[in-house]
Amino acid sequence: MLIKVLGSAAGGGFPQWNCNGRMSSSARLRKPGFKARTQSSLAASSNGKDWVLLNASPDLRQQINETAELWPAADGPRRDSPIRAVILTNGDVDHIIGLINLREGQPFSLYASDRVLATVNANSVFNVLNPEKVKRIELALDKPTALKGADMDLGLTVEAFDVPGKVALYLEDSSKGDSFGTETGDTIGLKVTEPSTGKSFFYIPGCAAVDARLAARLKGAELVLFDGTLYTDDEMLSQGLMPKTGHRMGHISMSGPDGSIAAFDSLDVARKVFVHINNSNPALNDNSPERKAVEGAGWVVSYDGMEISL
Ligand code: MLT
Ligand code: MN
Fold it and tell me: How confident is the model at residue 31, as a pLDDT?
């Protein structure tokens, strides 16, 4: 099974268009150690020819152009794409807007939870994906689904499961208290398995906490690509960027006693990779003490174009 990180940054990318903080400014000026990154998406394939996208970021057009595996086959028909399916893990802007780039009548399968499909269905702009050619398929939670690309068997199964999180920012309901109206299925993690080899990996780009259920699920995993939004919960405040904590945004932080690094310490996960990394996160700087700490704890900070073979 092949996995490619198409975009390793969180919403806004790195640098973010309107951000004058030290991290984005350094990336914009191409300072050493500050590698630019596009928004959150992954591609996976069993045969190296037919691919499923895990999330469709607003930068998808650029990501396809930079990833030869996602180009039409050189000897293929006049309209062609190896992208056979897309799975959405939430309704966030950074995960769904790239669907718009996949118009032009190309058939593929679109998978999401009932909650996220309802959001897509409620926005008629997504009808640019011809419903006759792009089947919208509800992913049931906690049971494996064999992935199909239009009518093609992709040789992969996916199991979706609810994780602690928050409804998309633009759907928040302030009358619903601290939950903002979040329901089961608003934020899911995915376990992608290749039945022919038994290999599998977890993809969880948004997660508010590693609770006992999630910890039990991840214990002993071969590979987990996990929410690396923030290093510390208050870093956006302390950098003067915006008055929100990671907790308020539905994201666990890397560091601290309640952070992901500590939570994974006892889980025996063989390969731990941070994805969905916010432009405020100092671990994006290759030469920072935070990067050193992350790597010292056995984690990898992903980058665009990173390839993993299982
Ligand atoms: C998030 O990951 O919290 C969202 O992508 C934030 C946003 O919508 O900008
Ligand atoms: Mn996001």
Answer: 98
Q: CB neighbours of 298 closer than 8 A, spacing ≥ 6?
A: 272
Give the dihedral of Cα atoms 296, 297, 298, 301; nearest 10 deg. -80
How remote is the CA of residue 249 from the centroid of ligand 2, in Å? 9
Its domain, for residue 217, covers 2-309
Residue 11 Cβ inside 6 Å of ligand 1? The answer reads: yes
The domain tally of the chain equals 1
The DSSP H or E segment spanning 289 is helix 289-296
pTM of this structure:
0.98
pLDDT in tens, 8-40: 999 999 999 999 999 999 999 999 999 999 999
Specify the length of the chain in residues: 310
Q: Which atom of ligand 1 is nearest to the CA of 251?
A: 3
Residues of the chain with pLDDT under 50: none
Q: One-letter amino acid identity for 60?
A: L
Atom of ligand 1 nearest to the CA of 166: 3
User: What letter does residue 126 receive in the DSSP assignment?
Assistant: G
- Cβ 186 under 6 angstroms from ligand 1: no
Residue 13: partners with Cβ closer than 8 Å, 6 or more residues away: 7, 36, 37, 38, 39, 59, 279
Q: What CATH code is carried by the domain that includes residue 303? A: 3.60.15.10
Q: pLDDT of 34-74, one tens digit each?
A: 999 999 999 999 999 999 999 999 999 999 999 999 999 99
